[in-house]
Automatic annotation (TrEMBL):
Native source species: Pseudomonas lutea
Keywords for this protein: Hydrolase
Family annotation (Pfam families): EryCIII-like_C (PF06722)
Protein name (Swiss-Prot/TrEMBL): UDP-2,4-diacetamido-2,4, 6-trideoxy-beta-L-altropyranose hydrolase
Domain of life: Bacteria
Originating gene: pseG
Lineage: Bacteria, Pseudomonadati, Pseudomonadota, Gammaproteobacteria, Pseudomonadales
Length: 362
């Protein structure tokens, strides 16, 4: 089975789309599929990382027109994107699946890309635009609890996979929960691969007065506050500042409290039962974060732009001092996620392709 994934990463977009697609790609590859990526060469792209992990990549232009908006939800000039993809794929036989994970693309792009693949899958979080696909995945809790969120956006032929049961997590997250200790000893702070919102630094300022906890900070690439954060960490021997980490899972396993965004790490935290103070750093995270808070999964403090240091400090203190609440969050989150979502989606793709992942045209 041949699979092409169309997704982007950048300082503005973040790394979450590529991260979850990469998880699915590894599962498919291990099941015998030939998986490739097509990505724009934006500032902060991850094409080299994908190539280093053994995937063939196709680099698309960073910009199609002079006034193009690179906001995470901005519509992409779909005709130009399809044309650029076609140029990259010249001489390639059609793929069995084309997977698109991009807020800026919709049914127009999907219909125009039909010549590249026998079937198309969309990964979405927004439920705000039409899709012309055979399979749609929305792994968010909002997609599970809202009434038919995609009824108006997909046709009757589309199979939908909705909710955290299908969250695209690496195999290591099929794991036992962490132990909930009477006292928080280690705090982990991360707001995505790039931290475009600058929320890591704001969180460290709120943590300044805590002298009895260890703090691990994964600040992300190109963080604009790196120097200031380095100075804060240098004065605190129990603070460890990481640009990247080769074993984020191990850091999560050893943490007692997580402070982070409402993106893809939400489901990793849930799989571990890791109590969380959540702050949304993008508009598309707000609904899901709020619904999860109402379901007793985490403490949600709202959008980062509406949050000050005192409110953040008070929220952190609330969870630090309440082991019963942390235990309740852990139990509620574990009920949502079992870590097998990527395999479920891979098996669905293979089944719709005729039941085999390995082999040309299988």
């Amino acid at each position: 089975m041949r699979v092409l994934i169309r997704a982007d990463a950048s300082v503005t977009i973040g790394s979450g789309h590529i991260a979850r697609c990469l998880t699915l790609a590894h599962v498919l590859k291990n099941m015998g599929a030939d998986v490739r990526f097509a990505c724009r060469a934006l500032t902060g792209h991850l094409l080299e990382r994908l190539a280093d992990q053994g995937f063939i990549t196709y680099a698309l232009p960073a910009r199609y027109q002079a006034d193009e908006d690179h906001d995470i939800e901005a519509a992409l000039p779909w005709q130009a994107d399809v044309s650029a993809l076609g140029e990259q794929l010249q001489g390639q036989p059609p793929f069995d699946w084309l997977i698109v994970d991009h807020y800026g693309l919709d049914a127009r792009w999907e219909n125009a890309a039909r010549g590249f693949a026998a079937r198309i899958m969309a990964i979405d979080d927004l439920a705000n635009r039409p899709h012309a696909v055979e399979l749609l995945l929305d792994q968010n809790f909002s997609a599970q609890v809202l009434d038919q969120p995609y009824a108006r956006w997909v046709g009757p032929e589309c199979q939908t996979f909705l909710g955290p049961r299908f969250a695209l997590l690496r195999d290591e997250f099929q794991c036992d929960p962490i132990a909930i200790k009477p006292r928080v000893e280690r705090v982990l702070v991360n707001f995505g691969g790039f931290d475009a919102a600058g929320q890591v630094y704001a969180t460290l300022l709120a943590l300044e007065g805590l002298d009895d906890v260890q703090v691990d900070v994964v600040a992300g690439l190109h963080n604009p506050h790196w120097q200031a954060m380095s100075e804060l960490a240098a004065a605190r021997p129990d603070w460890r500042l990481h640009t990247l980490t080769g074993d984020f899972f191990a850091l999560m396993q050893s943490a007692d409290l997580f402070i982070g965004a409402g993106g893809g790490t939400t489901w990793e935290r849930a799989a571990l039962g890791l109590p969380t103070v959540c702050i949304s750093v993008a508009n598309n995270q707000q609904l899901n974060a709020q619904l999860l808070a109402e379901a007793g999964v985490h403490l949600y403090l709202g959008p980062h732009l509406q949050l000050d240091t005192r409110q953040l400090r008070d929220g952190i203190a609330q969870l630090l001092g309440d082991a019963a609440l942390r235990r309740a969050f852990a139990q509620a989150s574990r009920r949502l996620v079992d870590g097998r979502g990527a395999r479920r989606i891979a098996e669905a793709l293979i089944a719709m392709n005729g039941g085999a992942a390995a082999g040309q045209g299988a």
